[in-house]
Amino acid sequence: MLTQYIRQPAAATPTQAGTVATLMIEEETTISDAPLFAPEDFGGGLLVLGLLLSPKPPKER
Amino acid sequence: MPFADTSPHEDYTAAVERVAGRALGVLMDAEGTVVPAGFAPADPRLAEPHDPDADLPGLRVLGSDALAPHVLRGTPLPTDQVEAAARAFAVFPPDTLGASPETAWIITWRDWATAHTLTRFGLAMDVPTPGDGAQVADASTWQSWSVRMAQLSSLALPGLDGPIHAAARRNAESLARGVVRAMLRRDYRTAARIARWLALLAADGVAFPLELDPLLRHVRLFGGGSTRTVLDTRIAQHVTGLEDS
Q1: Are the beta carbons of B107 and A21 separated by less than 8 Å?
Q2: The whole model's pTM is what?
């Protein structure tokens, strides 16, 4: 048994204690899908925008 | 010292990495020369802190893992580290960690392992008595069971024995399945922790259908740069006597 003076620091807050518990009990990682380019539905809007901006076909007279 | 723009989780993770890096230095007999992989020296949170209490969360989280190098190498634990371990328990007492009822028993067992290890170095800690380990008695659902054992990996040290260790010895095949599952999921953190148990079983002469050495090397190379993971693989190698690889 060691005979030594042990300095007593302030106790942790509930948030700090919860963080320690989380790091102690590491859950397994979650599986995610393959990484996708986030705005992958942007292409549809781009096509519509291109159609709207394109010059109108010439009218037959 | 906490940084104003970081969360407690980030500060505490950095503290864990620092303490794990120092433990790794002791284990590899190169104290002070280990550069935590991935976090590179550019990360200021891994620099030596001015606040002597900044590493207490890391000590509390790692528990017996931080002491394992001294156990495995047979070196005495410096007095200041014994004092720091006691202060970590004073700042984060076991009954205030706020774990859910489903996981509180895991913390109780980990604290038991830390207290038991600290008694080897002359410090008696008052921690709650763990139960009979009934939570890991049934390994039929080996997927979740092996994850529970991963969370209890700090018990996988020579000199510790109890119902958790008995469950591990009874279910070596479930542990092997669990570590392969973790590898397939690329969850190297969990794989390294389960491998700690397999290393202990290998040291005890328990057979299991898995080659541990290449697995540990793979986890160390691809484990994502966590010093904590590297420490787990190195502890496993020392326990099995494969430390030259």
Answers
A1: yes
A2: 0.81
Closest-approach residue (CA) in chain B for A16: B8
**E-state strands within B24-63:** none
Across the interface, do A24 and B107 touch by the CB < 8 Å criterion?
A: yes
Q: Do the chains contact at A23 and B16, CB–CB below 8 Å?
A: yes
Using CB atoms, which residue from B90, B99, B189 is nearest to A21? B99
Could you read off the pLDDT tens digit of each residue along chain A, which spans 61 residues? 556 655 556 778 888 899 999 999 999 988 765 555 555 567 778 888 998 999 888 888 7
- Is the complex ipTM more than 0.90? no
B5, two tokens? 């723009």
Cβ contacts of residue B107 below 8 Å, gap of 6+? Answer: A21, A24, A25, B94, B97, B99
Residues sharing a CB contact under 8 Å with residue B34, sequence separation 6 or more, in sequence order: B21, B22, B24, B25, B28, B227
